[in-house]
């Protein structure tokens, strides 16, 4: 969901996990001139066609081929638990974005899937406090953003599995603790 805390959570996890890097879907938006406009004049940013998804997949595959040379900082993470000591051979890529599970070429890549949710009113409130370039036009949230969120969420629920839903109204600390603990358990499984 837009403004659910995806980037904040990813950045906090990166500080705690060894050899961790982030690829953000926001870095793959097409320029405004290439984004379609609907009959109401809304720029259609909340659809897959507004993104260079093939480039994103290529970036993820390039990282996977050579994570050690991907520019990942290998310094000791902050507050690392004992289970993550001596993890020079562990590389973690966090891919964060709003339409990740609706793009079939990505679905075979995930070890874990997290999906942040927000109720309509909280989402709209948070969205109204952000400044976008280009700026949201009046009615954009209700006319495009929220309907596209619901559409893609329904699609995702029909086609994707093993998704951990996270309540975006919880504190950043609660969300971080939940996901961090889950990742630690996943790393322990992979190391066995």
UniProtKB/TrEMBL annotation:
InterPro entries on file: P-loop_NTPase
PANTHER family: URIDINE KINASE
The protein's name in its UniProt record: NRK1 kinase
Catalytic activity, as annotated: beta-nicotinamide D-riboside + ATP = beta-nicotinamide D-ribonucleotide + ADP + H(+); beta-D-ribosylnicotinate + ATP = nicotinate beta-D-ribonucleotide + ADP + H(+)
One GO BP annotation of this record: pyridine nucleotide biosynthetic process
Kinase is among the record's keywords: yes
Source taxon at top rank: Eukaryota
Coiled coil: none
GO CC, one annotated term: cytosol
Species name: Ardeotis kori
Family assignment from sequence similarity: Belongs to the uridine kinase family. NRK subfamily.
Alphabetized SUPFAM superfamilies for the sequence: P-loop containing nucleoside triphosphate hydrolases
Glycosyltransferase in keyword set: no
Pathway assigned to this chain's UniProt record: Cofactor biosynthesis; NAD(+) biosynthesis
Record key words, sorted: ATP-binding, Kinase, Magnesium, Metal-binding, Nucleotide-binding, Pyridine nucleotide biosynthesis, Transferase
GO molecular function terms noted in the UniProt entry: ATP binding; metal ion binding; nicotinate riboside kinase activity; ribosylnicotinamide kinase activity
């Amino acid at each position: 969901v837009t403004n659910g805390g995806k980037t904040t959570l990813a950045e906090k996890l990166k500080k705690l996990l060894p050899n961790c890097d982030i690829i953000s879907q926001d870095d793959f938006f097409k320029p405004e001139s290439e984004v379609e406009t609907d009959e109401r004049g809304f720029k259609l940013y909340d659809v897959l066609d507004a993104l260079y998804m093939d480039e994103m997949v290529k970036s993820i595959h390039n990282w996977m081929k050579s994570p050690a040379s991907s520019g990942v900082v290998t310094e000791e993470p902050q507050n690392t638990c004992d289970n993550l000591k001596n993890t020079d051979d562990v590389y973690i890529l966090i891919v964060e974005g709003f339409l990740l599970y609706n793009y079939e070429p990505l679905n075979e890549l995930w070890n874990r899937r997290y999906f942040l949710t927000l109720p309509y009113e909280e989402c709209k409130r948070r969205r109204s406090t952000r400044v976008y370039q280009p700026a949201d036009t009046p009615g954009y949230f209700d006319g495009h953003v929220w309907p596209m969120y619901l559409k893609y969420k329904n699609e995702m629920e029909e086609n994707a599995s093993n998704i951990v839903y996270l309540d975006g109204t919880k504190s950043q600390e609660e969300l971080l603790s939940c996901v961090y603990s889950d990742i630690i358990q996943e790393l322990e499984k992979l190391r066995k």
